[in-house]
Amino acid sequence: MNRKTIAVVRGNRQNVISFYENFEELNVKFISASFKPFKYRSGNKNFEFINLPYYNFLKFDPAKLFNQYGNLSFAFIRNLEEYLEGVDIINISDTYYFSNLQAVNWAKKNRVPVVTVVWCTIPNHITTWFPPYSFITKKIVEATDLFILRSKTALIFTDSLNIPRSKIKVIYKGVDLQKFSSSPVSSHRSQITILFTGNLSRAKGLDDLLYVYEMIRGRYRGLRLIIAGDGEMKKEIEKKNRDKVLDYRGFVSYEKLPDLYREADIFCAPSKEAKIFGIKYWEEYFSYALMEAEASGLPIVSTGSGGIGEEVGNGNSLVAWGDLSALKIALESLILDKNKRERVGRQNRARAEKFFDEKIQAQKTEAAIIKLLL
Predict the structure, then answer these.
(1) Which domains does the chain have, with CATH numbers?
(2) Cα gap 194→298, rounded to integer Å
């Protein structure tokens, strides 16, 4: 049959873009939406990258009132419908973006099937009952032909929406295992380095990590904490960097991330949850950073937030989120035991090879999508 074309409507995260470059049977039209121009060059003949701007259809973005600028923004993608012309299937992510409503409205009008990727692990999530997001969720659920869940834990969310299991496939995401790999020299270092990457927020548990690190850093000669990312705690992190309490690298590009992981001996992600008006709207669904850490052969200290337990499996140190004493004990256990660090690191690399190989997971995703076109 003629090669079909899939439109992938997403943001501009490079690890998401590279995932779809592994599709082999479909032509991929990756439509990246952003508030600022973004460029990406692919060497794949069957992969087309298009960057389109978001625009606010109101004079202001109500999401800013709740400090939720971004995924919850009242924003559409300019000229999206024009670039969807001629595609055979549409792939979106999550159920509540305004731009996804744009995509499914076009798909319905043109009788094009829709595949929706789901990360959320919170049953009856606020976006399923709080308007206008609840209206968007209802329309996307009705329009979707296949739901691809990125964790088994996410079934809690889809079950709460009464989505038939027959329309669901669980397929893990993945990372580039050649790019993210173990450091050949880390086991020979005398200095121990703890790494945190991602959103600099209290929901990610960064405040807990800072508290514990300041308790223990004087006890272990050369102990170092590297932090990379951006977010609400940036000014606090910058001050601690100036005071030489920690090593802050700012936002690190995707291309430089593998080398950052290779500097580390322990990866710490003490994620918690985020609430608005007392209602939980976020937990750690299934983290790219944790997959990257596993692929890099690092032992992990984390929590039981969301899908973390499923993602990292047995062998790593998972503590109750917010339990500072348990977090301290878990970190010190790895700091003091080189053999344990190396053993758990090897287990994590093997786990990444088994479950999170980007090429294999992309092929599984593509195969599930192709079945809709047969």
Answers:
(1) 5-174+358-371 (3.40.50.2000), 186-355 (3.40.50.2000)
(2) 10
Residue 142 phi/psi, 5° resolution?
-65, -35
| Side-chain half-sphere CA neighbours of 240 within 13 A | 21
Residue 77, pLDDT above cutoff 90: yes
Position 171, amino acid: I
Q: Beta strand pairing status for 193-197 and 266-269?
A: parallel
Helix (H) or strand (E) holding 77: strand 75-77
- Name, in order, each residue with C-beta under 8 angstroms of 11's C-beta and a sequence gap of 6 or more: 32, 33, 34
pLDDT tens-place string over residues 258-295: 999 999 999 999 999 999 889 999 999 999 999 999 99
Work out the angle at residue 24's Cα, subtended by the Cα atoms of residues 21 and 27, and round it to the nearest 5 degrees: 75
pLDDT digits (tens, 9 = 90+) for 85-128: 999 999 999 999 999 999 999 999 999 999 999 999 999 999 99
* Tokens of residue 295, six digits: 């692929």
Count the Cβ atoms, other than its own, within 10 Å of residue 255. Answer: 9
Q: What percent of the chain has pLDDT over 70?
A: 98
State how far the alpha carbon of 370 is from the alpha carbons of 113, 120, 279, 346, 364, in Å.
Answer: 11, 24, 38, 35, 10
Structure-token pair, residue 34: 């952003």
> What would the pLDDT profile of 226-258 be if each residue is shown by its tens digit?
999 999 999 999 999 999 999 999 999 999 999
Residue 68 pLDDT > 80: no
* Residue 132, CA distances (Å) to 35, 60, 104, 136, 139 in order: 21, 15, 16, 7, 11
List Cβ neighbours of 336 (8 Å cut-off, separation of 6 or more).
Answer: none
Give the number of other Cβ atoms within 10 Å of residue 22's Cβ.
20
Handedness of CA 241, 245, 251, 257 (dihedral sign): positive
